[in-house]
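Much of the work behind modern protein science is quiet bookkeeping, done one molecule at a time. The protein below has been through that process, and both of its lines are reproduced in full.


***
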Amino acid sequence: MTPSTKPVRRETSAFVRERGLRPLVATIHGSLLLLRPKGLRSEEALDLGSAWSLAVKQRVARQQAEKRAARKAKR
């Protein structure tokens, strides 16, 4: 894998409603993920480690909800 030393910026296929409907621009710089609506300067920064933790928590919560629904359906 190539290490992320230089910032890499890409326009994504995700859209947000921020002063109209705008595509998100994602920048990976080191261990940071910077997100901003295209054409605007305001950025939101995420640490990639935190993003990973959040994704794992969401997956576990979804699995637990599915399990609960399956148990409830059996009754």
Q: What stands out?
A: The mean pLDDT is 94. Strands lie at 8-17, 21-29, 32-37, 44-47. The chain has one domain: 8-74. Residues 8-74 form one domain.
